[in-house]
């Protein structure tokens, strides 16, 4: 009874139980509070929806995202990592079960007379058989098996969080590629209008030259400016084609199989409402890389217990039964044997190697803790940076729009003055060039805002909830 009580008392997992460290950045008030830039009118304090891409109200975009979630190769690889982690968990869990062995042999031969302590009396040749069955069970007195399972379970959680991180990235990059295709289509349209405007101005200059009101220098300058604006088209077309190729690969297709329906898009969809951003506490719950980092910290903590358990003895309960003898005496009473009892093993007194493994496990836990804090800080930095960039780019876009209106009026006024003969052609050329540059700047600013929006959603970690990931 005393022995049983001692065993039951000892049945506790050694090593620290996991709790998020009290000093973790994720527990701080600053990390859980509102964002610094959330007071801007462009942002909504409501939580980020899981399917944030639907805020664009684009059936085409929604279809592309769903296709990417099914066929993207990075997601397929991440799903394979989950399966591997689950296999590791099953392997660790199997240690809780008894181990069974079966043996069946038959041999023909002769044993040594010296071995049998019968020197000078050679033994005869015989057929000998052997049958046996055994079962053993390791008593997890100090929780080494339990800690191993705990670590494997945390590794599985980390693999699932890694899948969710990949999903967030795939959704964001698919949305970004689609918006870029449409943005470059719009920029191409703006450039083509600018080229048409320049060609009209050049033709007017030629007409005035033919009527004696202009010079060859005016015609040359106007023609050169037309070529300069036209030179932006090849770059924009190349960027649009690259975005189409990226969109094809994201959705699991070869570059040449890019979605033809998207090719003609020349106006990206816009958000119909301010961006919902939530707060720091929501960010900590939502970012899967933070969840993955904490799972890794949990796993590292459990491995301290795995290493510590080697300081204590291991007890294995075993039983076996068998029969060994000559074939002619198969299963006779004299051939039967059995054993029953515990096996105790203990790495003692050489414990320095075990202590070294424990110190290494402690160091791994400290490294994982530092990475956890670093992941939280980086997530906060990315969120604040994305919000700040978007807010400032909105201000820039408003200023550029005001500049475009002024440049457009200036271009119209100089055209009228030139047509009336009240000024030369150079002011017309300068005003037209200014309008072209400003219009292209506005178009580029709109494209930057579309990319900024995706960066905000990516930094906030939206897009993995209810993902239907492998379990």
TrEMBL record:
It is a lipid-anchor. Signal peptide: none annotated. Residues 377-417 form a coiled coil. It is found in: Cell membrane. Gene3D superfamilies: Outer membrane efflux proteins (OEP) (1.20.1600.10). It comes from the Bacteria. SUPFAM superfamilies: Outer membrane efflux proteins (OEP). Pfam families: OEP. Keywords: Coiled coil, Lipoprotein, Membrane, Palmitate, Transmembrane, Transmembrane beta strand. Belongs to the outer membrane factor (OMF) (TC 1.B.17) family. NCBIfam families: outer_NodT. This is TolC family protein. It comes from Variovorax ginsengisoli.
């Amino acid at each position: 009874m005393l022995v049983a009580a001692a065993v039951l008392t000892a049945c506790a997992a050694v090593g620290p139980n996991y709790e998020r460290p009290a000093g973790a950045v994720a527990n701080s008030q600053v990390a859980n509070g509102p964002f610094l830039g959330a007071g801007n009118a462009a942002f909504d304090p409501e939580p980020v929806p899981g399917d944030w891409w639907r805020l664009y109200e684009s059936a085409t975009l929604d279809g592309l995202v769903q296709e990417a979630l099914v066929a993207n190769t990075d997601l397929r690889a991440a799903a394979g990592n989950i399966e591997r982690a689950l296999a590791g968990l099953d392997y660790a869990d199997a240690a809780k079960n008894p181990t069974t062995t079966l043996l069946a042999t038959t041999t023909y031969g002769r044993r040594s007379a010296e071995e049998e302590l019968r020197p000078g009396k050679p033994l005869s040749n015989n057929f000998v058989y052997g049958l046996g069955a055994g079962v053993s069970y390791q008593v997890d007195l100090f929780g080494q098996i339990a800690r191993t399972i705990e670590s494997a379970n945390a590794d599985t959680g980390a693999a699932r969080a890694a899948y969710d991180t990949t999903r967030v990235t795939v959704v964001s990059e698919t949305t970004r590629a689609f918006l870029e295709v449409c943005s470059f289509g719009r920029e191409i349209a703006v450039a083509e209008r600018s080229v048409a405007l320049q060609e009209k101005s050049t033709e007017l200059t030629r007409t005035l030259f033919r009527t004696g009101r202009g010079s060859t220098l005016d015609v040359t300058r106007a023609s050169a400016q037309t070529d300069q604006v036209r030179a932006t088209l090849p770059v924009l077309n190349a960027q649009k084609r690259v975005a189409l190729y990226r969109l094809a690969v994201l959705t699991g297709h070869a570059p040449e199989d890019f979605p033809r329906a998207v090719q003609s898009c020349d106006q990206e969809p816009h958000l119909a409402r301010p961006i919902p951003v939530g707060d720091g506490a929501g960010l900590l719950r939502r970012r899967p890389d933070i969840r993955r980092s904490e799972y890794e910290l949990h796993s590292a903590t459990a491995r301290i217990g795995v290493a510590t358990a080697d300081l204590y003895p291991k007890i294995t309960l075993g039983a076996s039964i068998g029969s060994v003898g000559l074939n002619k005496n198969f299963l006779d009473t004299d051939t039967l044997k059995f054993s029953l009892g515990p096996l105790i093993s203990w790495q003692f007194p050489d414990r320095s190697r075990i202590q070294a493994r424990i110190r290494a496990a402690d160091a791994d836990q400290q490294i994982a803790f530092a990475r956890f804090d670093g992941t939280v800080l980086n997530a906060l930095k990315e969120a604040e940076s994305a919000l700040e960039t978007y807010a400032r780019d909105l201000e820039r876009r408003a200023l550029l729009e005001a500049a475009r209106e002024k440049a457009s009026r200036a271009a119209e006024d100089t055209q009228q003055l030139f047509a009336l003969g009240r000024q030369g052609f150079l002011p017309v050329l300068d005003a037209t060039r200014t309008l072209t540059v400003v219009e292209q700047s506005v178009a580029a600013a709109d494209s930057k805002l579309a990319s900024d929006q995706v960066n905000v959603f990516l930094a906030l970690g939206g897009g993995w909830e209810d993902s239907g990931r492998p379990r």
